[in-house]
Amino acid sequence: MPAERRLPDNLGLDGLSLEQVRRTRARLVERGRWGEADQVVREVIDLFATGPAGVSGPQLGGLVYVPGGPSPDDAQCAREDASALPEEQRLAARAAQLANRGVDRAETVATARQLLALPGVRGPGAFWCAILALAYADELDTAMDLSVRAMRSPDVIGLGEARGVVVLLVARLMWLGGDPGGAAKVLAGSLRRDVCRQIRSVAVAWLVSALVDLGELDRAHDLLLEHGFSGALAGVQDRAELFMARGALRFALGQYDRALEDFLDCGRDLTAWAVTNPAVAPWRSRAAVCANAVGRTDLAQALVSKEMAAARRWRSPRAVGLASHAAALVAGGEPASLREVVSLLDGTCAVGDALHARYDLAQALSTRELHGEARKTLEAVRDTAGRTGYALWSGRAEEALARMTALDRAGGLTRQERKIGELARTGRSNRQIAEEQYLTVRTVEFHLSRVYRKLGLAGRRDLKAILTPLS
């Protein structure tokens, strides 16, 4: 084997030990050489396509990132297996790695389909990998059809814990397909029935995400507390999924600095697995919006640049739409850019993200005094969100419409109020605003109080929730 593969010298096809590969990968990750670690695993997986039938060793778990998969130090990975590695395991790992890299969507889908077309009953782990790969590729209808069939037929997947695995997949597909209420109901039921330990944290993360869309923020917070996921998450399995879900909750609460930390932590975990595909987790898009909201524009621009490049490589409409939304906000929230984002997302199943983009478009229109179009856009958000169960956005739209009515009655914001309100929105203190504008702190407080009253806001926290500029 060529030296550039960086595998142990004694690691040849005839005596391939996956535990050695796992240790090699871990050493490379510790040194920050994530790309090389990914290359090692990719080459080993490829070797199984032409390798000898008697290759043995621990299973492929812990070599490739999969939500709910065993960690490298899990007992499942340490278990020796004298038999040949099943073809479905090789294809499962290959599909997961292709999805994680996010370079060839067609090959990812083809590999997942090849796995699912193998004769015999699928193992739950392999089925899980294949369905997630299809979901990342926006093949939601195919993934749902296969999952429903698996729940109904023992010829597709084994019974027992396998059914619980498929139920979670169905719930996730419901959420991705625009049904947060149905997803939350299924996930809550799974947790009540004591879902298996390995995928419990994933179930919690996915339920939190659904609850945020439903506007049940207190319930989502309580769920994280109940399971011990409100702190540092040290030693917790599937931290990336939990960081994404908790970041979404904190974003909905207007805690942009804390949400930013969660999204960046998610990115660190996924980077260690060489996961670059935003379809797996759009952490860069989310982090960019948060960074922009707290005034860290350089970070926001860097994140958006990388996210757009990765989304275009994957060429998933959903991923491109999410990245474009973040890019539009970071660039200043121009209505023309946000209209393009709405058009992109309206053609996908990303109902919640489309509502979010349309809401931001309404805010951008309103701050540019295009009140008629802004009102119509908010009414569309309210009606669609109410019809599809996205209470978070129906509530936000109602509040924004009420603010517009109050603003109309008050005669709108003056130029000075817009300027001071915008500076406060981006995180500056009253004293900083006073120094920049050559005003007294008392004058700044006076103008801000008028901004809050005219917009129907309780204070700075509500003002920061307006993500498009006021001026």
TrEMBL record:
Pfam families: GerE. GO terms for molecular function: DNA binding. It comes from the Bacteria. InterPro entries: Sig_transdc_resp-reg_C-effctor, Tscrpt_reg_LuxR_C, WH-like_DNA-bd_sf. GO terms for biological process: regulation of DNA-templated transcription. PANTHER family: DNA-BINDING TRANSCRIPTIONAL ACTIVATOR DEVR_DOSR. This is Regulatory LuxR family protein. It comes from Saccharothrix carnea.
